[in-house]
Amino acid sequence: MTGLKHKTLTHLERLEAESIHIMREVVAEAANPVMLYSVGKDSAVMLHLARKAFYPSPPPFPLLHVDTTWKFKDMYALRDKAARDAGMDLLVHHNPEAEERGINPFDHGPLHTDMWKTEGLKQALDKFGFDAAFGGARRDEEKSRAKERIFSFRTASHGWDPKNQRPELWNLYNARKAKGESIRVFPLSNWTELDIWQYIHLENIEIVPLYFAAKRPTYMWEGQLFMADDIERLEQVMGRKPEITERNIRFRTLGCFPLTGAVESDAATLPEIIQEMLLTTTSERQGRVIDKDGGDASMEKKKQEGYF
Amino acid sequence: MSDAPSMASAGKPDDAIYQTDALIAEDIDAYLEAHQHKTMLRFITCGSVDDGKSTLIGRLLYDAKMIFEDQLAALEADSKRVGTQGQEIDFALLVDGLAAEREQGITIDVAYRFFATEKRKFIVADCPGHEQYTRNMVTGASTADLAVILIDARKGVLVQTRRHSYLCHLLGIRNIVLAVNKMDLVDYSQEVFDAIVADYDAFAKEIGIESYVAMPISGFKGDNITTLSANMPWYRGTPLVEHLETVEVNSARDIDKPLRMQVQWVNRPNLDFRGFSGLIASGSVRPGDAVRVLPSGKTSTVSRIVLFDRDLEEAVAGQSVTICLADEVDCSRGDVIAAADAPPQVSDQFEATLVWMDDEAMHVGRAYWLKLGAQTVSVTVQAPKYEINVNTMQHLAAKTLGLNAIGVAEIATDKPITFEPYAENRALGGFILIDKLSNRTVAAGMLHFSLRRAQNVHWQPTDISRDTHAAMKNQTPRVLWFTGLSGSGKSTIANEVEKRLNVMNRHTFLLDGDNVRHGLNKDLGFTEADRIENIRRVGEVAKLMTDAGLIVLTAFISPFRAERQMVREMLADGEFIEIFVDTPLEVAEARDVKGLYKKAREGKLKNFTGIDSPYEAPEMPEIRVNTVEMTVEEAAEHIIRQILPLK
């Protein structure tokens, strides 16, 4: 060799290379891939990596948003812009049954997630015949995810069998499947929350403004702090007008606005967010109500039923 | 977090090593700048819960502040409810993620954990230690730069220590840490430690481990984890975390090797751009470098290295990039772009070590998919030369490999692949085998070397093509593959079909199961392996006959779907016509033309299909004939009508 001093890859460069490699494998081996896009920070990183992986081509698959109609307004705005910027098709799916029955987070509890997200996702994948779907889940998020493969195999009815996972060696992914079966692929498996934030900072990736602290209208519900994103609609389903207070808040994670707890914060820049995250003492998903119902195996159970 | 209940307070993390709250609070930009230059190390921990593996991982996460208050609270609650450590925190619960694992108190699967220090990010593959989970350990080891092999100081080197060391060595992990744990329970005795290391040393040399680092630690008390322990002043080495922070990672080592990049995807957005996307497996590349594309051997030079909206001056092992070449060279998925003056080898026959990972044992002679990087080919595996006892390292004679068995065997691919011995390059020497029907990953393998005969046997080109042969006979070659139970009527119907085809001036040949076993296959019996080989040979003969332009009829029980599929894949698309002679077992047994069912029922005939050996009926045969409802003539007529026209 030339004796030149070569660069040493940083952990973010290695993670980036791994994610890009995963995406290219899927595109090479799957017949009809799609990227699940939830508009959160992990989705933002995943989309950015997809753009890098296939540049100068646009990513050769569409984005799919399985919508609940209860997301924050800012999320819908960024969703449409991000798809446009990437030159990708955006598919939005609403579960027609949930729409018709008016399923909402106040009256229907866990059914809200089940109908809009789990059922909605299955419907959308079946409807378009996608055989591989990228998701932004990370192994550091939750215990059962720590054991899930990067290429996670699903039966024709979208079930996950944690005891019957394919061994995954080196960077060799077995993407073969029978007709009707599909694969969920997690290119961010080995990223941590800190990695995600650092990468957003380093690569200047656009994220929903709600991650940054600002004065926003808030209300308390069952002991948690929420943002009143659509006051009229809240009033309709709650049957009363919640007591609104202006507070300096931001979000560590984003989902349906009546289900996503806010934190009081002054962190208005990325370094400040990272700072706050590093000094905080509770894990990220605590702001989400979804993991808690159903005991300590609730995410595992949801995944077996087809949740991402 | 200082009030965590049972984490012993000795060996409090040194704030100089770990992320300091002070720096984060005072100068986040400086912290971020430092963190962005961290490198990454992937390692595996080997040992069982008894060795304190989970406690060690829990300690590393805890010291690195990777356990949040809410997680700790949940862990405390879980520990009291289902833990095995009494009132103390059971760190195994933190690591065992699946409900089944927590309920049964065992680790089934590999879990990946993450933590970071000031210098590095770490990914820990936490693997179960028992022998029945060998495949899981191999999986975890495949991506590791380093292995921590745990030994309980009270127990010394055990059979499982040998097994774990052997597997790590087999998977090519060069950095091994022998962590003698629970030193607090042997009074931090240097004699105990030295005796264990001496014992291990003899074994390590025996299996070819060139170097390792031995450390006396206590995961529970925190001795020699982040700082040197005052309890063991006699230990002159570094604490575990410092070693993990400074040891060389694989990708750094791979940079100094010649360039290899497997092409995953050809990027062609428009006529002006044609790039080859892949992950650089070894070496480095700069624009202007001379490269060679394998297996074709064509050369060119690198014109651009693209990563998003900027071009790179240099790309190195471990990076995913898109390379553009100066010339219009034929190059597609599975090809390897390599240094022009040091290309890898190309071959189609190899010796390899296989780790069997499926409940269903290896079928000698059956065709599997082999995936090596972006190359996927069809392979057959010979009977193992030997199996390795993973506890004693002895070589045992073996006819096949079952779940978790490790053995050495020869494999043949249906077309040449570009490779390097695994010991030199993991990415070009490591592969998986995939079952063609179930699509399960059934084995992992490591290539040793190419067998010389593959290099010396070449295809001889012939001038009269198969199309010419077929045209001379004025027909389209076909293989009419009759399958069904013994006594179902395969030979009788096939014979009738052949007679009718001859009347129609078709050139045919009938390969009958019984007849072939008198000659070509007289060395084969009726075990599963022999049945597979029987069908493989018949498939090859049928293929030669179609090359000669013939319509081939075969009458074989051919009970296994996989072998019928194998023959289908040997032939051109549409050439293989599977005819299922569908006769229920009761009917075939009642006919018992050759008296074989009677013998099988009396136990005088072993491995008889339908009695003590399975028949896997075709799921979607091209043609099905029901011999209960149809006469021989009707069945033959039905088949002829389906296969016409034949030109």
What does this protein structure show overall?
The complex is a heterodimer of chains A (308) and B (647). Chain A has helices at residues 11-29, 41-54, 73-86, 96-101, 105-108, 110-128, 193-203, 231-238, 270-279, 298-304, and strands at 33-36, 63-66, 90-93, 132-134, 151-154, 182-185, 214-221, 224-227, 245-250, 263-264. Chain A is α/β, with parallel strands linked by helices. In chain A, the strands form two sheets. In chain A, strands 3-2-1-4-6-5 form a six-stranded mixed sheet. In chain A, strands 8-7-9-10 form a four-stranded antiparallel sheet, with no helix packed on it. Chain A is globular, with a radius of gyration of 20 Å. Mean pLDDT of chain A is 86; it is low at 287-297. Chain B folds into four domains: 39-65 and 90-248, Rossmann fold, CATH 3.40.50.300; 253-339, Beta Barrel (Elongation Factor Tu (Ef-tu), domain 3), CATH 2.40.30; 345-456, Elongation Factor Tu (Ef-tu), domain 3 (Beta Barrel), CATH 2.40.30; 466-643, P-loop containing nucleotide triphosphate hydrolases (Rossmann fold), CATH 3.40.50. Chain B has 21 helices and 29 strands. Chain B has a six-stranded mixed sheet with strand order 2-3-1-4-5-6, sandwiched between helices. Chain B has a six-stranded antiparallel β-barrel with strand order 7-9-15-12-11-16. Chain B starts with 20 loop residues before the first helix and ends with a helix. The relative contact order of chain B is 0.07. The model of chain B is unreliable at 1-19 (pLDDT under 50). Chains A and B meet through helix 1, helix 2, helix 7 and helix 9 of A and helix 1, helix 2, helix 4, helix 6 and strand 2 of B.
Helix-strand blueprint:
The complex is a heterodimer of chains A (308) and B (647).
Chain A: H1 11-29, E1 33-36, H2 41-54, E2 63-66, H3 73-86, E3 90-93, H4 96-101, H5 105-108, H6 110-128, E4 132-134, E5 151-154, E6 182-185, H7 193-203, E7 214-221, E8 224-227, H8 231-238, E9 245-250, E10 263-264, H9 270-279, H10 298-304
Parallel strand pairs in A: 1-2, 1-4, 2-3, 4-6
Antiparallel strand pairs in A: 5-6, 7-8, 7-9, 9-10
Helix pairs in contact in A: 1-2, 2-7, 7-9
Chain B: H1 21-26, H2 28-36, E1 39-46, H3 53-63, H4 69-82, H5 92-95, H6 99-104, E2 111-116, E3 120-126, H7 134-142, E4 146-152, H8 159-170, E5 175-181, H9 190-207, E6 213-216, H10 240-246, H11 250-254, E7 260-262, E8 265-270, E9 273-282, E10 284-285, E11 290-294, E12 298-307, E13 310-311, E14 315-316, E15 320-325, E16 336-339, E17 345-356, E18 367-372, E19 375-381, E20 386-388, E21 395-396, E22 406-419, H12 426-429, E23 430-434, E24 441-450, H13 452-456, H14 466-472, E25 478-483, H15 490-503, E26 508-512, H16 513-518, H17 528-547, E27 551-555, H18 561-570, E28 576-582, H19 585-591, H20 596-601, E29 623-626, H21 632-643
Parallel strand pairs in B: 1-3, 1-4, 4-5, 5-6, 25-27, 25-28, 26-27, 28-29
Antiparallel strand pairs in B: 2-3, 7-9, 7-16, 8-9, 9-15, 10-14, 11-12, 11-16, 12-13, 12-15, 17-22, 17-24, 18-19, 18-23, 19-22, 20-21, 20-22, 23-24
Helix pairs in contact in B: 8-9, 15-21, 17-18
